[in-house]
Design a protein that fits this description.
The protein has about 200 residues and is an alpha/beta fold. It has 10 helices and 5 strands; from the N terminus they run βαβαβαααβαααβαα. It holds the Pfam family MGS.
Length: about 200
């Protein structure tokens, strides 16, 4: 397996992220990030490439569309051992993203507030985060995906030792992702089930 070149870090829980990203940068890994996470990393003195600069396409729709772009998902999903995938990435300027560290909008915490409105709850349904996580977890043969800061030390230790993580580690982390995203979607579905459709505001054209 080739040495990791590039990491995408976009976190709601920023605990330890600057130290983790700093260690990645120290290994020569380029850092991609978005919004508040990019600000935290820059404040720590790290060089960060904004996703909008990486893709050449601006964040839009009040942040609803940030990472949903072929240069991001192609970079995560292409199989490194597939010559046709490599050719298509080369033809389309898609660079590899080897590490994805993402956690999700705090939906459960948001709807636990009795004052939470429907609009506020809906805006805390994460779209880009689960999509990134699922893409990276699907391609665990080539990509390391991290949803839990407790996994930072092992990932860093393996990267320092070999330049990449072990397949067993990537598989364990991928399983963690699917457990998280399934529970996240279940929480959204359960909350929506409690709503009375008759109480919803009128349809928006």
């Amino acid at each position: 397996m080739q040495k990791a070149e590039r990491a995408l870090i976009s976190l709601t829980d920023k605990d330890g992220c600057a130290a983790f990203a700093g260690a990645l940068a120290g290994l020569g890994i380029e850092l991609l990030s978005t919004g508040g996470t990019a600000g935290v990393l820059r404040a720590a003195g790290l060089r960060v490439v904004e996703i909008s600069d990486f893709t050449g396409f601006p964040e839009m729709l009040d942040g609803r569309v940030k990472t949903l772009h072929p240069k991001v998902h192609g970079g995560i999903l292409f199989r490194r051992d597939n010559a046709e995938h490599q050719r298509q990435c080369l033809d389309n300027g898609i660079l590899p993203i080897d590490i994805v560290a993402v956690n999700l909008y705090a939906f459960r915490e948001t709807v636990a507030d009795p004052a939470c409105t429907l609009d506020n709850a809906v805006e805390h349904i994460d779209i880009g985060g689960p999509t990134l996580l699922r893409a990276a977890a699907k391609n665990f043969h080539d990509v390391t995906v991290i949803v839990d800061p407790a996994d930072y030390p092992q990932v860093l230790a393996e990267l320092k030792d070999k330049g990449h993580t072990e397949l067993e580690t990537r598989f364990r982390l991928a399983r963690k992702v699917f457990a998280l995203t399934s529970a996240y979607d279940a929480a959204i579905g359960q909350w929506l089930d409690r709503l009375d459709p008759a109480s919803l505001p009128g349809c928006r054209d």
